[in-house]
Fold:
Amino acid sequence: MQRLRTSGSTWLLLAPGVLLLVFAFLAPLYVIYQFSVGERMFAQTPALASLTGEATSFTTQMWSGFLGHDVQLKVLGGSFTLPLVAVGIALLGLLLLTVYGSKLVPRGGGVLAIVSALLLITPFLALPWGDSFPRLAELSSEGTDLRLFFKSVTMSMTASLIAVLIAFPVAYWLAFVAKRSKYVWLLIVITPFLTSYLLRVYAWRLILSSDGPVNSLLLSLGLISEPVPWLIDSQFAVVVVLAYAWVPFICLPIFIALENMDRRLLEAATDLGASRLMAFRRVTLPLAAPGLIAAFLFVFIPTIGEVITPGLVGGTNGYMFGSRIQGDFISSGSFDWQQGSVISLFLLAVVLVLTAATSRFLRNAGGEVS
Amino acid sequence: MDEQSRIEYSKMSRRGLVSLAGAGTLAALFGNANAFGSGALDLSALAANGKFNPDKETGPIRVFEWEGYDAKEMWAKYTASKYAKSSPLKFTFLQDDQQALAKVAAGARYDIIHPCVAYTTDWAAAGLIQPWDTSMLPDFKGIPAAIRKGGNIGGKQYHVAFDIGFSTIVYDADAVDPADAKSWALYTKPKYKGKMSCFSDGVAITKIGALINAGGPINPNKLNAAQIEASKKTMMKVKKNLRSFWTSQTQTVNDFVNGNLIATYAWPDGYWRIKNHPKMKGRNIKYMWPAEGRLAWVCGFVLAADSKVPGRSHLAVAAANTPKTAAWLVDAFQYSPAQGAPSVRQLIKTKALIKAFSIDDPTAFAPPRAWFETPLKNRRAYVAAAEEVKAS
Structure:
């Protein structure tokens, strides 16, 4: 590639991206910030704001209303009340140890990273089964929005893990087994993306409904005596549909990580007497890890603010954080753009921190050995 | 009705919800389409009398309407006038009140918009609308004063009512115990858990909770903080019995006719669709009249503050809001007209609708039997409580 010598041409190439960043992200972000601190209102004048009940000058009241709540950590039947700041610092610390543990501690760093990761995800892990998901640990809060945030993280994390668990064997098969036809199969795997997302979600509504094929099959096999009520209009349905929707998408980064792996390492492992299982555990899995984590983040980041799927298949229990934002801005009728801006900015901050902290994995998703 | 007519009719659904059940009615309606616009309304004479001067205006009239309300029958008098050529009606469809207000507040520009009255203060607060000159709307006086009042802010008429209707529970009387079908408290019965649905609107949720708590008629438009708090607690319990908070009536109608529901909150057309659906043949579908009273809504026209054709917009609304179009509204959409003149009932083709929706009963649309929505000063408190219910 010819090297760019003049700063003028460099700026010319950058200009569209910079303009997009300024007009489509930074400018709206600034407006949202103004709403979040009462410097901007839905009403046109302070006098008219009395009709909508908005703040008319700078205030942090909306922020304190959202963040001014303690957090309850429920573990194995016990409940501990902790300040939100402490919980935030602990979660951030665990996240950084998960990402950089192996670099910070030369010996045993890997174990530290794994333990940190387990501690980090345990409060957000749930078994997606039944009316309410069984939990080992749980974060909750008296604050409605915070509680909803923790619930959304749980649903999104569960969906992300399921998606990765489904996508990994598919990508593994494509990379190592499918041989010449792998790109044809890859195309087939991503075919669902060619159809409308709404259509796919509605299809699940039919599949999981009371008279749908799943319930009909279970009834005909005599496994149930009446349709399972929580298959649709439930958290279960939201998690299943989110996982399904993202599996084709995340097959790609995992496939690329596996495809770019140096196969000679596997041969060397075999030559040195490693079984196939050991070679998979000691060579394939560590090298695929960045791709797996990137895939997990590719699902987690967009789904945490999901609106459409909870609205279509979530029922009364599938309500998520994104639904709340949509409600404040549009659908609930309160037109509380100020509160909607606060929780939108909070979600953005969480996603930015997560992305920045895990950028190492996102960079290495191509299968490089770091 | 031939296939083409059926397709055309299905396109006209307001809120995407119109039943095909009134097919015979519509055949008659289309057959008489020419009858519209044949009244005594003289738009040229109106143009000379108001504070606006339509003769000096030009450019299209942008109408932000419910799907189906672009029907030629509704605007025939205007489209036949001399103004229509230089100011044709250009329709864009709105999905719901909240989305419409958010869209216009975000910069979308229209001349006539068709929101419900509960949001009039928000439209006015945002500086998006201006008052109507009611002297240019001859049939405005045909709207009962109680309905007109909701759209009046500080003595100025910002909202001109066009369509009204009930909101209550449709239920399958074969599946619901008659003793339970007399009150909004049906929602509290665990024996119907997972078989009931409610509208997702925050204000409606809080009103229903308050009516359940009251156990009898109270004005759900005037709830205080304690009543809202109590309503929230009740609806949190109710939520456990509900299958969903529906956002699209089509969705809940489909759930009902597919056997997933035996009771759901619905507007009149939703009830009519369910009742007349082929899958519901032989079922005893009823539209509840709760002891606490039905909820009721009022929708109508507002005029954009920055309209470049305010005079011609008046003429279009004057043409659309007549007893004839009011009767057409009932036949086509199963809604009730804001026009209260007895002549409306004479013009309605499907007389069964008059009884089904109590159009001939003046007490039906008045407290304590029904509670019309009004702009709420503390709507944020209503919605915040409902959001907590949803998030619980």
